[in-house]
Amino acid sequence: MTRIWLNHWFSSAYNIINLIKKEEKDFYIIGSSGNSNSVVKSACDEWYEEPVWNEQEYVDYCLDFCRQHKVDIFMPRTGMIQISERKKEFEKNGTWVMADDYEKIWTLNQKDKAYELFKEKGIGTVPEYRIVTESAGFQKAYEELMTCYQQLCFKFVQDEGARSFRVIDNHQKGFEALLNYAEVRISYEEALNALSQRDSFPPVMVMPYMPGQEVSVDCLKTSQGVIMVPRIKGEDRVEKIAYDKEILDICRDFYEKVGLEHPCNIQFRYLDGIPYFLEVNTRMSGGVQMSCLASGINIPNIAVNKMLGREKKWQNRQEEKLVSYVEAPVIV
Q1: Domain boundaries in the chain?
Q2: CATH top-level class for 2-99?
Q3: Alpha carbon distances (Å) from 116 to 102, 120, 128, 144, 301
Q4: Alpha-carbon distance 229 to 243, whole Å?
Q5: First and final C-alpha spacing in the chain
């Protein structure tokens, strides 16, 4: 019996766990979260509520948890960067960690450092950007970039799930504003006022807003080659699986020049017909189940078996499909 632990994931881990266990009888899933009512609980064989720790204490907690519960494979989301830095300590205790090398993970999770890496290695195209840490810098960046682009956006360099992402929209006024999704839109004056409330703040990236299609590519390196399933995100819940050669070539180039051993998600956004790099998430995406269903490739299951030294065959016919999802009630 292989004991697998997922710590404090998004609710999408519910789907990831079900995919891991699909057609497998020897996978035992342990889940944990700071949220006692997490829907992920219902997909697990064993469940624990996590305490609140600071970053370094949390890694120690994870080491102890793996020892106490005889974890064979640890699939971290929370604390992944810090956990990867101490991966050898887990391995000494007999736990394999589904996380790539610390240096790569740290770089790819720092948006500015990742963009510098992509430019240095000539991988795809990154958007023009400015990094600011105080309101005067934000004002200067806004003025400079607005001379070249119609609309701008910004987010904190260290971000997850685009929580801090905002589009600068100076037209969000009056009745029409009530009909739009206002939570990601903010006027320049509102943004400047909010940032001015601090003498300095963590690095913020200011860049052009790209209104074109967003493409999310779920990837995994295997002995057969790199699995790449691109999803074009729509305004509604329908996503299109489409294998654009330019997108696939950029992903291949990334794997040749940087490469990751474990699942990742590469995101692009179009502006004037050009696919720009947005980011590389060094974990499975929240929509990986969409890619798995449409392609017939079980990425989570293949990834776990890879860690166990088992080669699972897969084939991608690169068929274009539309895929969606519906809400389903689950007893927690």
Answers
A1: 2-99, 105-124+212-323, 130-206
A2: alpha beta
A3: 17, 6, 11, 20, 33
A4: 7
A5: 25
Q: Are 233 and 215 in contact (CB under 8 A)?
A: yes
Give 205's pLDDT tier (boundaries 50, 70, 90). Answer: very high
For domain 105-124+212-323, is the CATH number 3.30.470.20? yes
Q: CA-CA distance, 123 to 125, in Å (whole number)?
A: 7
DSSP state of 72: S
- 140-166: pLDDT as tens digits: 999 999 999 999 999 998 877 678 899
Rounded Cα–Cα distance for residues 120 and 247 (Å): 19
Tokens at residue 207, please? 């860049």
Q: Tokens 């600068």: give the residue.
A: 168
Q: Tokens for 31?
A: 């889940």
Nearest Cα neighbor of 294 from 254, 249, 238 is 238
Helix or strand holding residue 268 (H, E): strand 264-271
| Mean of pLDDT values over 128-144 | 97
Residue 179 backbone class (left: φ over 0; alpha: ψ -120 to 50; beta: rest): alpha
Strand order in the sheet with 204-208: 130-132, 204-208, 152-156, 166-168, 185-186
* Band of residue 57 on the pLDDT scale cut at 50, 70, 90: very high
Q: Of the candidates 303, 265, 264, 282, which has an alpha carbon nearest to the alpha carbon of residue 81?
A: 282
